[in-house]
Write a structure and sequence with these properties.
The protein contains eight helices and 28 strands. With about 350 residues, the protein is of the alpha/beta class. It has two domains: about 1-225, Spore Coat Polysaccharide Biosynthesis Protein SpsA, Chain A, CATH 3.90.550; about 240-330, Hexapeptide repeat proteins (UDP N-Acetylglucosamine Acyltransferase, domain 1, 3 Solenoid). The strands form five sheets. Strands 1, 4, 5, 6, 8, 9, 10, 11 and 12 form a nine-stranded mixed β-sheet that branches. Strands 15, 16, 18, 19, 21, 22, 24, 26 and 28 form a nine-stranded parallel β-sheet that branches. A six-stranded parallel β-sheet has the order 14-17-20-23-25-27.
Length: about 350
């Protein structure tokens, strides 16, 4: 079995961060989302992994490399336009050939162990297995309808009036027949080749499509609030680990302070992580906060936020529920009269409390 990871796309819901950064590399608990995906694939003993890349391909390649850190072999497959999940499978057909494969969206975090599902696929040989979970907002996802026997009978991509609340999780198992299904597809109203349409073709042509309801936690990290929730869940699984320096400071409840980080005159209240080489001075870092390597925070309070690498926050007051990109500077001027001054990228979202 091979694996196909989708790491292209524009990441429009995470702009302005993704104007200059691959959404799959945005960190959750100081680790890129894509790394969680590759770790899960490696646990399944799948060695041959294709990664679909687009405009941010060079960044993804620089971060992932050849895959050796996960004991996998990575092949990069270029998709010139994000024309749908089925289109990604189509451009990867030369890599996949006729082998069964696991398809995994590179911006999804799934805590459930997939080993039993892969074993079931290998042993009972369905043509596809789709993962489903109940959601409160099914119109934002591909939606599956099951009959009274629990069989998949209908799939619709982002329906305006969903027939169920069962959304497709971004993990699928396919055999070679999905390529035949994709050959019959036409672009949807979104101008894309939809994987839901390919699966529906399999159902309509009497191929065996099975479903699995996800029992563990899952998150599509396409929006800021989803990223912050994923960050919260992952941080809550960690245990205390203090490798950096604490000077006249306290760190309590699931706090990780990485090597070469320095905390002075501050309080860290976890779950939280302070990255390598970060510097925290006269500040409060509250629960569910990830501070990336090389960040400097002085005389500020931050809670329930992700601060990305190399940023500097000085005299900023209290910051909550925020995603702050790389090498950002936030500081309060000491001059009078006091005022806010912004240099902000396209489609930013700023709320002054």
């Amino acid at each position: 079995m091979k694996a196909l990871v989708l790491s292209g796309g524009k990441g429009t819901r995470l702009r302005p961060i993704t104007h200059t950064y691959a959404k799959q590399l945005v960190p959750v608990a100081n680790k890129p989302i894509l790394f969680y995906v590759l770790e899960n694939i490696a646990k399944l003993n799948i060695k041959d992994v294709g990664i679909i890349v687009g405009d941010t391909g060079e960044e993804v390649k620089a971060a992932v490399g050849d895959g050796s850190r996960w004991h996998i072999s990575v092949t990069y497959i270029y998709q010139d336009q994000p024309l749908g999940l089925a289109h990604a499978v189509k451009v990867a057909q030369r890599f996949l050939q006729d082998e069964p494969f696991l398809m995994y969206l590179g911006d999804n975090i799934l805590l459930e162990d997939l080993s039993p599902l892969v074993q079931k696929f290998n042993n009972s040989s369905p043509n596809a297995i789709i993962l489903l979970t109940e959601v409160a907002n099914p119109s934002e996802f591909g939606v599956a309808t099951l009959n009274e026997k629990g069989e998949v009978i209908k799939l619709v991509e982002k329906p305006r009036e969903p027939e169920s609340n069962l959304a497709l999780v971004g993990v699928y198992l396919f055999d070679r027949h999905v390529h035949k299904a994709i050959e019959h597809l036409k672009p949807s109203w979104r101008g894309e080749l939809e994987i839901t349409d390919a699966i529906q073709w399999l159902i309509d042509n009497n191929f065996r499509v099975e479903s699995h309801i996800v029992s563990g936690w899952w998150k599509d990290t396409g929006k800021v609030e989803d990223l912050l929730e994923a960050n919260r869940i992952i941080l809550d699984t960690q245990t205390d680990c203090i490798k950096g320096e604490l000077h006249n400071s306290t760190a309590e409840f699931k706090v990780v302070i990485e090597k070469d980080a320095v905390v002075k005159g501050s309080k860290i209240r976890g779950p939280a992580i302070i990255g390598k080489g970060a510097r925290i001075v006269d500040s409060y870092i509250g629960p569910f906060t990830s501070v990336a390597p090389g960040v400097e925070i002085v005389n500020s309070e931050i809670e329930h936020s992700i601060i990305m690498e190399g940023s500097r926050i000085v005299n900023a007051g209290r910051i909550i529920d925020s995603l702050i990109g790389r090498e950002v500077i936030i500081q309060r001027s000491q001059n009078h009269p006091r005022a806010h001054r912004f240099i902000v990228g396209d489609r930013s979202d700023i709320e002054l409390l």
